[in-house]
């Protein structure tokens, strides 16, 4: 018997000021896999990710989390199962890495349950796996771009959810730091079984570090499936208007796009 993915969207439509952004879109995130959401600028990638996290209400259709309409779920319940890191997040000036990561524990706290041993353990673990333990008391605004992104991911990890959504996590990072961050995300997926979805612009990096791809154009799904099935010369022409040749990456065997 096929088990439905924990997070999916069905016939999702969203418009801004009467302009359609997503049009009857249906997608599913494979459990325990890393999914890349790709497409040209302004095609609805970030809107889709925000909709999956319930940050953007659906005009029509539904987002389904664990078999239920996410719009009808309790906010704290959702936050215990799903974490999202939005584009270019901002923290108060002078906030330390440890204090930022601690904010990820908010869904697990209440007026009757403040900072606990479980919170401390989750924060320490998040700092450890992101390599930030030695920098924990540093102010966030003194870090490099790559270190800051790691700190934000550590906050999302401290939230201790099995679903992690990342909106353009490599933005403003140079190539070595992009690779470092994507390797971190892939390692987290492989080591913990977390389901991850990321909005990415670099198709070759998406092919190397992800298992599944959702390709959008004009708010419509053009293709979704395994990397090798989706990233084809035909799709690159149809979605990105790019004439290219695709070869196997000599080091990883994944599709590698070479513009003609």
**Helix amount:** 25-40%
Strand content: 25-35%
> What is the C-alpha radius of gyration, as a whole number of Å?
19 Å
Ranges with pLDDT <50 over ≥5 residues? Answer: none
Mean pLDDT: 92
Our measurement of the CA-to-CA distance between the termini, rounded to an integer number of angstroms, reads 44 Å
**In one word, what is the shape?**
globular
Number of strands: 12
Cross-sheet strand order for the largest sheet: 6-7-8-3-9-10
Largest sheet: 6 strands, mixed
Number of helices: 9
Order of helices and strands: EEEHEEHEHHHEHEHEEHHEE
Q: Strand pairing plus helix content: what structural class?
A: alpha/beta
Keywords:
12 strands, alpha/beta, 9 helices, about 260 residues, globular, six-stranded mixed β-sheet
Describe what this molecule looks like in 3D:
This protein is an alpha/beta fold. The chain has a domain at 91-160. The protein has helices spanning 45-52, 75-79, 97-102, 117-129, 145-158, 175-192, 203-209, 227-230, 233-240; strands at residues 7-16, 19-29, 34-38, 60-65, 68-69, 82-85, 163-167, 195-199, 212-217, 220-226, 244-248, 255-259.
